[in-house]
Design brief:
With 222 residues, the chain is an all-alpha fold. The protein contains eight helices and no strands. Helix 2 packs across helix 5 and helix 4 runs antiparallel to helix 5. The longest helix is centred in the middle third of the chain and has 33 residues.
Length: 222
């Protein structure tokens, strides 16, 4: 498989897997956290959901995490492949998306540690308060995620509009607008708007992957 085809598949499958697992399956299977809780209590309740369904929770967490990782790697590879007018903006994105991967690793690590401390084991009693605090730290890392994801999508979209490549310019402009909306989430647009922004950004990234696959197939047939 060529690097371009790998990039396209990661962009196509990653966002879909992330949304289906975390947006649909997770709340149905594990339940949702009650509204109106304090930050530490909310984080503790979230970790408790996974602790109560350990095997299922691990499967969903890893599946969603790898889907998200695949999407970020795909975006980084797409940025790296940009040439001509989009090369400079692509180079800037090459620093942003690896930083997002680092945030993911830190956030997931804190979540896993929080779950282990909450449950306890090997003769050590669980500590729900400390487990919740570690989970809150992990959530805080993801709090900055929309800023950098939005900035990365904005720069990448502008790069697509400047590059005479396989992706149409309109796709670049749509990605740019979606990136600006995602970036604006950091200014407190509300959970509902943030949820729709997440869906929109995921759809745009997935559509970019589909268009890349079609372009690769068209080039191979020529």
């Amino acid at each position: 498989m060529s690097i371009n085809k790998l990039t396209a598949w990661l962009l196509t499958i990653g966002p879909i897997g992330m949304f289906v697992i975390w947006g649909i399956i997770d709340p149905i299977v594990l339940g949702e956290v009650a509204d109106g809780l304090a930050p530490v209590e909310e984080a503790t309740a979230n970790v408790q959901r996974y602790a109560d369904n350990e095997v299922t929770g691990w499967i969903l967490s890893l599946s969603g995490g790898f889907s998200m990782l695949g999407m970020m790697v795909g975006l980084g590879l797409l940025a790296k492949s940009m040439q001509a007018g989009g090369a400079t903006l692509g180079s800037l994105c090459g620093y942003i998306f690896p930083a997002l991967v680092a945030m993911m690793v830190f956030g997931f690590g804190s979540e896993i540690s929080g779950q282990e401390i909450l449950v306890g084991g090997n003769g050590v009693a669980g500590d729900p308060e400390l487990g919740g605090m570690l989970s809150l730290v992990g959530n805080s890392a993801f709090g900055a995620f929309p800023i950098f994801w939005g900035l990365g999508l904005t720069l990448l979209g502008l790069g697509i509009t400047r590059e005479d490549g396989p992706l149409p310019s309109i796709m670049g402009w749509i990605m740019t607008v979606m990136g600006v909306v995602m970036f604006s989430m950091s200014f407190g647009l509300g959970d509902e708007i943030g949820f729709f922004a997440w869906i929109g950004a995921s759809l745009v990234v997935s559509a970019t992957g589909v268009l890349s696959l079609l372009a690769i197939r068209k080039a191979a047939a020529a």
